[in-house]
Amino acid sequence: MNALLDLAAQQLRADLATAPGRVRQRLSDEGRAARCRTIAELRAAAKRSVPRPIFDYADGAAWDEVTARRNISAFEDVTLHPKALTDVSEIDLRTSVLGGEIALPIIAAPTGLTGLQHPEGEMAIARAAHAAGTITTLSTMASCTIEEVAAASDGRRWFQLYVMSDRGLVDSLLARAAEHGYEALMLTVDVQVAGVRERDVRNGFSVPPRISLKTLAQGVTHPRWSAGFVAHPRMVPANLGWEGSATATLASAVNRSFDPTVTWDDLADLRSRWKGPVIVKGVMRADDALRCVEHGADAIVVSNHGGRQLDGAAAAIEALPAIADAVSGRAEVYLDSGIRRGTDIVKALALGARAVLIGRALMYGLGAAGEAGARRAFSILEAELRVALALAGYPRAAEIGRDAVS
Ligand SMILES: Cc1cc2nc3c(=O)[nH]c(=O)nc-3n(C[C@H](O)[C@H](O)[C@H](O)COP(=O)(O)O)c2cc1C
């Protein structure tokens, strides 16, 4: 009898220990997303929901992660100067980018291997961006194909290009993107070689992922993520023909495939071949921004890749004012790297950005609750931006200027 009681007590203890996990699992994605009130809470939820190496891949940055932290802390160093007694009963977040209106000045940044967070990957991000009334940018390194993402949503979409050594592959990517309605080409210029992300090195992060006892254990402790992964494994970039290739670290795969000889001549060449607008992403200096304009770029993204490339680089928000001044309206200027709050967006707009791009905020949302989580990332930032603009005394996002900050 005692033995039976002991057994029952053991079972009860085990049930109680796992109950929060089981209750969490029963919550719908919508429910899980709705419980997160900030991007920081989406991050915490993603950290619980996906295996550690997958979370670290999205959250991590280069070397000591100084620039990644600075991207965030530099926003704290920008001070807002609210304007009194303006009518803020209607807040207008609309702006135009590359000739078309978007409902809010937030665009989905290109992110590679997004499908590791959730099997819907870039398709979920595209649908969330469309629902928010804005644009999605598909990475060269995306987990979903150019065609899948085009079919997933009717929203505006841009294609981000890394120039690969295999120029035939680049040509075919451009042709597929043009054929499937990607209206702008975004050339990323800050991955001459792979940045060293030490969390990935420590975790043995690879493409395709190496299945070890440790990864199996991670899978068991993250059953919802594992169910998605097993049903729809998205293990390698989908557009590059890497399926079936041998396991390699992401850095070595990048260094093997990307072309480190890319120069301004390649920008000129792409400009002449791509019929639509060209955006250059990863510009951090005013002289480079001017050269982009001279080479016919329609837009520039002031970005340090979220601190994932050159650690020690300035925060993107620190680089923005000088670049906006130099470009002086001859190209559109956007900013990414470190956007976590609506006030960050107000500051970026005030310092000369027409819109911001968000990378990790969407990755966290996706990891936490799939497409519902990505939608939540947009809605959190939108709601914060509305309140921040009202309190700053600028009812129209497109009209906030340098006088609002110091
Ligand atoms: C997981 C992950 C993958 C990324 N992959 C790409 C990519 O394939 N191409 C690219 O141009 N930028 C890539 N980036 C950089 C983002 O486009 C963007 O510059 C950065 O995330 C902005 O900083 P934030 O994450 O603080 O918003 C990636 C970023 C993350 C977090």
TrEMBL record:
Q: Which controlled-vocabulary keywords does the entry list?
A: Flavoprotein, FMN, Oxidoreductase
FMN hydroxy acid dehydrogenase domain location is 31-406
Pfam families, A to Z: FMN_dh
Q: Which CDD domains match?
A: alpha_hydroxyacid_oxid_FMN
Domain of life where this protein originates: Bacteria
Q: Does the keyword Flavoprotein apply?
A: yes
Required co-factors? FMN
In the record, the note on similarity to other proteins reads: Belongs to the FMN-dependent alpha-hydroxy acid dehydrogenase family.
By what name is this protein known?
Alpha-hydroxy-acid oxidizing protein
**Species classification:** Bacteria, Bacillati, Actinomycetota, Thermoleophilia, Solirubrobacterales
